[in-house]
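Sorry to interrupt, but I need a hand with the structure work. Can you supply me with one protein entry, sequence and fold together? No commentary is needed, just the two lines. Leave the record below and I will have a look.
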Amino acid sequence: MMTDPKSSNSDSSKVTRRAFLGSALVIGGGLYIFSMRKTHTDEIQSAEAATTPQEVTIVEFTDAGERKGTAKVPKVVKSEAEWSKQLTPNALDITRHDDTEMAFTGKYWNEHEKGLYRCICCGTALFDSATKFESGTGWPSFYQPIAEENVAASNDRSFGMQRNAVSCKRCDAHLGHVFDDGPKPTGLRYCMNSASLNFIKHA
């Protein structure tokens, strides 16, 4: 029996096309599944990164002002509702919304007792009374923090001014600003808000 070459070629062409289309579908399906798995994995990793507390290195101190050493601690992150429960409305506005208390109204601007100033939000040690000085500004002023590792500085261009804002390294609480018109030995003036601080008097 003779086979029509044209028919044979046509059948062969159909098989080739089917095989190609089948392979393309398999490859395409495989790539789609791979991409979906990768996307899902990326989403899981992103979610894990968002929920995993970031660590920061600070220097810990006793309430008596004695240095205990450096420590890696989880960064304190809370929702607005959580901060609202913990802080007074004034402290919330200042520490979490970068507000500033009026001069001569804070409870520590005229404080002369010896002690330690901690962050009102997370308790991190920030300043020692030994570095506090009378600046005449109406805000508690210090010529240096208790440890450079415990504070952070950032540019603040609000109100058309160029200033260096100071925040707590562990919880990002806004503390005040630092200026270069302070006394020796640093020549700096850390102008802080009383509402961002908690004073622990030395026993």
Q: What stands out?
A: The first strand starts at residue 55 and ends at 61. Confidence is low (pLDDT under 50) at residues 5-10, 29-42, 44-49. The CA atoms of residues 58 and 148 lie 9 Å apart. The two ends are 114 Å apart (CA to CA).
